[in-house]
Amino acid sequence: MSVILETKGIVYRYGVGTPFELKALDDVHFAAEKGAMTAIIGHTGSGKSTLIQHFNALLQPEKGQVLLSGEDVNRDKETKRRARFRVGMCFQYPEYQLFESTVYRDICFGPKNMGLSEDEIRVRVEKAAGFTGLTKSMLEKSPFDLSGGERRRAAIAGVMAMAPEVLVMDEPAAGLDPKGRRDIFRLIENYRTSTGSTIIIVSHSMEDVAAFANRVCVMRGGRIVMEGTVDEVFSRYDELRQMRLTVPKITDVFHTLRARGFAVDTNVYTVEQARDAVLRALGKAGDAAC
Amino acid sequence: MTDTIWLRFDHVHYSYPAEEGQKAVPAVTDVSFDVHEGEFVCVLGHNGSGKSTIAKLSNAILIPDQGVVTAMEIDTSQESRELEIRQNVGVVMQNPDNQIVATIVEEDVAFGPENLALPQKEIRRRVDDALKAVDLYDMRFHEPHKLSGGQKQRVAIAGILAMEPHVIVLDEPTSMLDPKGRTEVLDYIHKLNRERGIAVVLITHYMDEAVQADTVYVMEKGRIVLRGTPEAVFAREDVLDSTGLELPECAALASALRQAGVPMPKSVLSPEALAEALAQVLPREVTP
Question: Would residue A223 count as lying in a domain?
Answer without folding.
Answer: no
